[in-house]
Amino acid sequence: MLTDSEILSTLEMLENENLDVRTVTLGINLLDCASHDLAKVKNKIHSKITHFAEHLVPVCDRVGQKYGIPVVNKRLAVSPVAVVGAALSASQLVDIAKILNEVAQEVNVDFIGGFSALVQKGIARGDRALIEAIPQALAGTERVCASVNVASTKAGINMDAVLLMGKTIKQAAKLTADKDGLACAKLCVFANIPEDIPFMAGAYLGIGEADAVINVGVSGPGVVKKAIDRALEVNPDLDLGQLSELIKKTAYKVTRVGELIGREVAENLKISFGVVDLSLAPTPNVGDSVGEIFQSMGLRSIGVPGTTAALALLNDAVKKGGAFASSRVGGLSGAFIPVSEDLNISESARKGYIGLDKLEAITSVCSVGLDMIAIPGDTTAESIAAIIADEMAIGVINSKTTAARLIPVPGKAAGDSAYFGGLLGQSTILPVNNGQSDNRFIRHGGLIPAPLQSLTN
C-alpha cells in the first residue's frame, strides 16, 4: 500500500514532472493467419486485429481519464511477419505491411510493430523475403515498424544477416531521402531481443506469448530528474549510494502506476496482462530528458568522463525499483539514450560532448543500444554493418539486449541537421570513422560463434 506522502508525490509527478503511461501496447498472435494465399492472409490479419483491437483506444482513454494519468500512445505488436508470411514473396510481404498499416489506422493506434524476423543463427526463406521487403514496406507506410534479431548470446552473431541489414538500411534511407531517411527510424536491429517489448520500433509478440496480451511502457525521466534535484537541494552532500536509493524508490512508484493502468486496461478488454516496461524513454520536450538526469547528478553533459558510471548507476537503480514494485517487469526496462528523441542528448551531440564512439561505450550499461543516431548519407553499407556488428558483440558477450537504430541521412554530412518530426525529434548528424572503406572483415560473413557464457545448462 502507498502512504499518504507517496500518493501526494505521485500526484506531483503527474502534475509537474511529465509522468505518463508512454504506451499501452496490445500484442496479437497472428500465427493462425498463415497461408500461401495472400488474399486469405490479408483477410485473416484484418479480421483478427480488429477483433482484439477495436476497443483498445477508447478503453485506454477511459482508464486514463479515470485516474488522471494520460496514456500517450496506443500501439499494436504482432507475431513476426516473417513467420506468419513464410510462404509469401517479398512483394507480397509489402502488401502485408500495407494491410497492417490500414488496420492500424482503422483502430486508431500510433504504430504497429512486428514486421520482424529472427535470424540470429540462420536466414530462412521467409526471413530473407521479409528483409528484402523492409525498405519498401517502411517507406510506403506511416505506422508499420520493423525489427530484425541478428544475434544472441546462445547463437552468436549472424554476420551474413548483419551485412544484409547494412544494405537494407541504406535502401530504406534512399527510398525516404526527401524525409531525411525517415524509414530507418522505424527499423531496429537487435541482439537478444525480448519477446514482450511495448516500445517501438522493436515491439513484436514473441512466439511463446498468448493470443493477446497487454504490455505497458511507463516512462519518467522528468520524474527521476526532479527527485534528484529536490533531494540535492535539501542535502547537497548526498553520496551516490543515497542517490541510487532515491532513484530506486522513484522507479518503484512509477512502476506501480504503470501496472495499475495496464491491469485495468487488460481487464476491460478481457485480455491477459503481460509486463510493465519501466524504460526511461525521453521525448524531445524540455523536462522529459534522460540527458538532463546526468546534469542533475553533477556531470556537465552526457558524454563527458563519468557518463558510463552514472548510466550504470541509473540503469541498475531503475531495474531494482521496478523489480521490487512488480513481479511482471519485462521488455527492456532501464534507460534509453535515443539521440534525436532526447532534446538534451541531441544538444550534447551538436556541441561535441558526445559522439558515436562514446555512445557505443555506454551501451554496455544502458537498456537498448545505439538509438536514433543520424549518420552521414554516404556511409557505406559495410560501415553500417560494422557499427551494427560492434553493437551486437556488446550484447552477446554481456548477455544483454542491445540494438542499433541508425539513419544514414541521404545528401547530408556530419555536422548537418536531420529532422524526423514528432516524437522522433531532430539531431546533428554524427561523423563515422570510415578509415577502412573496404571492410573485408564484414564481408567474410558466416557466424561469429556464441561465447562461453552461452553454456549455461
What do these coordinates show?
By secondary structure, this protein is an alpha/beta fold. 44% of the residues lie in helices and 18% in strands. It has a domain at 23-191: Anaerobic Ribonucleotide-triphosphate Reductase Large Chain (Alpha-Beta Barrel). The strands form 2 sheets. Strands 1, 2, 3, 4, 5, 6, 7, 8, 9, 10, 11 and 14 form a 12-stranded mixed sheet that branches. It has a two-stranded antiparallel ribbon with strand order 12-13. A hairpin with a 6-residue loop joins strand 12 and strand 13. It starts with a helix and ends in a 9-residue tail after the last strand.
Kindly state the number of beta strands. 14
Q: Structural class of the helices, strands and pairings?
A: alpha/beta
Helicity range of the residues? 40-55%
The appropriate CATH architecture of the domain at 23-191 is Alpha-Beta Barrel
If you average the pLDDT, what whole number results? 89
Model regions low in confidence, pLDDT < 50 over at least 5 residues: none
The percent range for strand residues is 15-25%
Order of helices and strands: HEHHEHHEHEEHEEHHEHHEHHEHEEEHE
End-to-end span in angstroms?
39 Å
Rg from Cα = 21 Å
CATH class of the domain at 23-191: Alpha Beta
CATH topology of the domain at 23-191: Anaerobic Ribonucleotide-triphosphate Reductase Large Chain
Q: Give the overall silhouette.
A: globular
Strand count, sense and closure of the main sheet?
12 strands, mixed
Query: Number of DSSP helices?
Result: 15
